[in-house]
Amino acid sequence: MRRLFWLGIGLAVGVVVVRKVTRTAQAYTPAGIASTVTESAGGLVESLRSFVEDVRVGMAEREQEIHQAFAQGEAFDDQFADLREDPRIGDREIFPEEHQR
Which of the given ranges, 71-75, 76-80, 90-94, has the highest pLDDT on average? Predict the structure, then answer.
C-alpha cells in the first residue's frame, strides 16, 4: 500500500513538473514571445489612453474655471506670474552668461 501511495505522489509531481516545463518552454517559442509582446503592448496602449483621458478631463475642468472667472469679471489666477517676473529664473540660471550666444 505504501508503494502505491508513493507511486501516486511521484506521478503527481511528475505531471506538475512536465506541465511547468512545457509552459516555460512555450513562453520562449516565437508564438509565446509574440503573445507576451502583444499583451505588453496592449497594456501600454491602455495606460496611454487612460493618461490622455485624465489630461483631457483636467484640461476641460481648468478651461471651465477660466471661462467662469472671465464671465464673472474676476482676475485670472495666474499661478506662475511671480516666476515669470523673477529675473533669476530663465536662461541666465540654466546657461551662464559666457555660454550664451
Answer: 71-75
